[in-house]
Amino acid sequence: MDFKHSLPSQATRPPGPDYNSLQLKLNIIHGNLSLQTILLIGACLQTLLFLLPIPKLYSVGPAIALLLFRIIETTLITYNLIPNPYLEDAILRKTAAQPHDSEGKFSGPGKEKIAILLLGAKSNHPLGIFEPQFGKVGNFLRIMTEELNGDPTQDSGFLGQSAVTRKDKNGATEQVTISYWRSIEDVHRFAYSPNHLSAWRWWNDNVKQLDHIGIMHEVYEADAGMWESVYVNFQPTFLGSTTYLKKDGKLVGGEVKEEWVRPLLDANRGKLRTSNGRRGLMDKKENINKVYGGDAESYETV
């Protein structure tokens, strides 16, 4: 059975999260502010406009114009009159992430084991992310991420990562990165690398002054066939955003060019359409009949 990649390979490794990007910084600042704070900032700015020696119409004009712009833009997107920016880079079909082997080859559904590291930090401080010590935590994370994404050989076992941000019940912002590795041994080996040891020592040396900063991690390893994934109308994310160095790339101009591949495969039909299939297992025919009816004959069943 042929499996079709949903994204083309690339000559260089696709970049990971860019912690220096303006958009990411704005998102982090926005997540750090409560709705009440944002409304108060807006109210203060509006008040300052009223105090200026200008016609009152000009004072309320910017807010009204921005609101009208948002309403018009939303309407145009809703009726498909302009492109939907939220669909940028989305793959508008069903795909499944299937990690490749150490040579960058796909050997079959569910054939590879996978390790997952959840690494989180939160600032339990009124200043949130602007508390100086928390900024140091973020800088350590940025340095480690740049090191892992910059590995030209992928010998570290690091496959990629995604990040999520949420607020806890007290309003504190939590930032969590979910990274994927070939094995727990690879995760532990990185824990004793120079950059992580530097962060570790800094924490141990200052822990008595860091009660307001929370850090956590969880590590899991799933054996081959004990995991699966599916994405419908999604941008590449989590396991689907990992990358694999294909080590038997094409010979061009007397040298082998690098080739980085994504693990997302077409899952609209065939074995990858079902959960068991994505794990490399056979489906029961009665279960396939219940879900796919007349299409059931096109599936391998037991």
Written overview of the protein:
With 302 residues, the protein is α+β, with helices and mostly antiparallel strands. It has 3 domains: 1-20 and 92-265, Alpha-Beta Plaits, CATH 3.30.70.100; 33-86, no CATH class; 269-302, no CATH class. It has helices at 22-32, 35-51, 56-78, 132-149, 184-191, 194-206, 275-278, 285-292, and strands at residues 91-97, 114-123, 158-167, 173-181, 213-222, 231-234, 244-246, 251-252, 255-256, 259-261, 264-266. The strands form 4 sheets. Strands 3-4-2-5 form a 4-stranded antiparallel β-sheet. A 3-stranded antiparallel β-sheet has the order 6-1-11, with no helix packed on it. A two-stranded antiparallel ribbon has the order 7-10. It is globular.
- CATH architecture assignment of the largest domain: 2-Layer Sandwich
Q: Mind telling me the CATH class of the largest domain?
A: Alpha Beta
Principal-axes geometry comes out as: globular
Number of spatially distinct domains: 3
Low-confidence stretches: none
**Strands ordered across the widest β-sheet:** 3-4-2-5
Using the CA coordinates, give the radius of gyration. 24 Å
Overall residue-averaged pLDDT value: 89
InterPro entries: Dimeric_a/b-barrel, Monooxy_af470
Pfam family, one: Monooxy_af470-like
